[in-house]
């Protein structure tokens, strides 16, 4: 794992999503994305790349309604591949399966974009070496340029056999209703540092990464929190290096007036847009 996604950094981890058709969605994540089913029931499926760490959990609530309208929530979650050769294998697989996708070169990374059958956004990407990132006055240079697909495909001719075991959750990108309010929450309360701006978007990280969390108002300023039973993000995970770091964040959350709930599977809070966050610890991952 790269240095940006482990202690002492605060990072993002497992994402939990509500879906309307569990079987069809699980099939997509297996055959198109290349995750493996770790455990499964009639209303629940846990997906992994390495067979150990959950990356995506899907829930099918009984009263679930389809994703619709303008609201806060998930823009995309992003799976980070270990190498450019891994991205080559994945890109060739998308071409061969004829599944629609988008693509971009962001200077810091090369990325492919897919939408799952329920309308949730997914990015699959590889980072360029951090020595090639261009920083100026505390900001990292990012852009959206045409991807060199031919160059990527030349990086490997290996057959596709699912996502490599070293795949991790690289970052999450969220829709919010108020950009400044969301930025203040992630900066001041959870102590992520703003490292880049884009029209109506803010990119934040710890430890000098290009971004662990991004927020945008591309659904329009004032976009409301979606109904609790709507398809989409249920919660995502912020991973702290140890319990002291997590307790510090919980103290700041309580002081700021943010909700903090202790549940059987850990502590939960929500950002000002209503995006629910599970607060966990590295290694224990309770």
TrEMBL record:
InterPro entries reported in the protein's UniProt record: Glyas_Bleomycin-R_OHBP_Dase (IPR029068), Glyas_Fos-R_dOase_dom (IPR004360), VOC_core (IPR037523)
Domain spans labelled VOC: 11-127, 168-286
Short name of one Pfam family: Glyoxalase
Domain of life: Bacteria
Protein name in the entry: Glyoxalase
Species of provenance: Paenibacillus contaminans
């Amino acid at each position: 794992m790269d240095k940006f996604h482990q202690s002492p950094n605060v990072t993002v981890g497992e994402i939990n999503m509500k879906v309307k058709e569990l079987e069809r969605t699980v099939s997509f994540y297996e055959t198109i994305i290349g995750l493996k089913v770790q455990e499964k029931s009639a209303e629940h499926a846990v997906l992994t790349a390495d067979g150990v760490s959950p990356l995506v959990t899907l829930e099918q609530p009984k009263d679930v309604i389809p994703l619709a309208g303008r609201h806060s929530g998930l823009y995309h979650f992003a799976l980070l591949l270990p190498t450019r050769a891994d991205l080559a294998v994945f890109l060739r697989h998308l071409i061969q399966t004829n599944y629609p996708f988008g693509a971009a070169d962001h200077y810091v990374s090369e990325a492919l974009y897919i939408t799952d059958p329920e309308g949730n956004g997914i990015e699959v990407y590889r980072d360029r070496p951090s020595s090639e990132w261009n920083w100026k006055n505390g900001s990292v240079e990012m852009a959206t340029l045409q991807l060199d697909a031919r160059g990527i495909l030349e990086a490997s001719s290996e057959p596709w056999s699912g996502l490599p075991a070293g795949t991790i959750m690289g970052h999450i990108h969220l829709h919010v209703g108020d950009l400044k309010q969301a930025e203040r929450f992630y900066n001041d309360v959870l102590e992520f540092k703003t490292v880049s701006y884009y029209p109506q978007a803010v990119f934040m990280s710890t430890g000098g990464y290009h971004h662990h969390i991004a927020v945008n108002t591309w659904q329009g300023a004032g976009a409301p929190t979606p109904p609790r039973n709507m398809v989409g993000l249920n919660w995502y995970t912020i991973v702290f290096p140890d319990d002291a770091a997590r307790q510090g964040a919980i103290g700041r959350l309580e002081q700021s007036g943010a909700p903090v709930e202790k549940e059987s599977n850990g502590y939960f809070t929500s950002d000002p847009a209503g995006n629910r966050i599970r607060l966990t610890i590295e290694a224990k991952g309770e």
